[in-house]
Amino acid sequence: MPDTEVLSSILNAQRNEITEYHIYERLSQLTKDPHNKSILKQISQEEYAHYQVWNKYSQTDVKPSRLKIWFYLMIARILGLTFAIKLMEKGEGQAEVNYRGISTHVPEALDLSEDEDRHENELINMIDEERLRYVGSIVRGLNDALVELTGALAGFTLALQNTRLIATAGLILGIAASLSMAASEYLATKSEETPLNPVKSSLYTSSIYFLTVLFLIAPYLIFENVFHALGLTVVCALTVILVFSFYISVAKDIPFKTRFLEMVAISMGITALAFAIGFLARSILHIEV
């Protein structure tokens, strides 16, 4: 029987394996795609096999973490299967340290770690999920909404100085732009040699654009002071950029910092420029609202 510290590490590794077994098993039941279901079933079986190896050394049955199971199932339902799985796998760095620490007591530890990394990465990359196939359309809709509308709202803020008027102008602009984006995305996708459905591409682009528009104009429906509204709109824009950059960095294995800083620089740069244009327009044209 291993000493207390080693046994604790074994039990932790064992609990991780049985927890992930249940997560993959539940995810396989949730997905309707036969291809994805088969992959998730295979990963769950590997996790259970690893659990049995640890069980041989601990000689103790352990229960899975119900909270962890619930959390990743919720994430999968909201943000997608691939994101949930990759987020879970990124959190296993500490588990690898445990494997190395107890390898002298459990000869199979390093082999289990290497086997899990290799096979799970191969299988995860085989998972086919619709929302990731159309991520390009989502990125175009989100980027355009952040750049165009945040900039427009900044310009409207100084030129019009009336929150209700600014919100109305922003909403009209957003609706028109989302319809234009839908048409452009449909024609662009249809003209390319791609397996993507033009109608779905246009719906993803226009939908994410319009939802971002609603989120950005909301502060102008809350505050009477135009500068308070603009400040909160900028915070909303930065929040959207932060969340989306994190999502893409996990789901598509793209560096988070690079994408986040790039999107912030573009969006906030256009906002500052539009704010200056609004100031000049109000001064030169003597607009009073």
Descriptive terms for the model:
single chain, about 290 residues, mainly alpha, 2 domains, about 85% helix, elongated
Can you offer a commentary on this structure?
This protein has 289 residues and is mainly alpha-helical. The protein folds into two domains: 4-128; 131-285, no CATH class. It is built from twelve helices and no strands. It has helices at residues 4-30, 34-58, 66-79, 81-90, 93-102, 109-124, 130-133, 135-160, 163-191, 198-222, 226-251, 256-285. The model has no long low-confidence stretch (mean pLDDT 81).
Summarize the structure.
This protein is mainly alpha-helical and 289 residues long.
Shape: elongated
The main sheet comes to:
none
Terminal CA distance: 81 Å
Mean pLDDT: 81
The number of distinct structural domains comes to: 2
**Helical amount:** over 70%
Strand portion, in percent? under 5%
Radius of gyration: 25 Å
Low-confidence blocks of residues: none
Give the helix tally: 12
| Secondary-structure element order, N to C | HHHHHHHHHHHH
Task: Count all strands and give the number.
Answer: 0
Question: Which structural category do the helix and sheet elements fall into?
Answer: mainly alpha
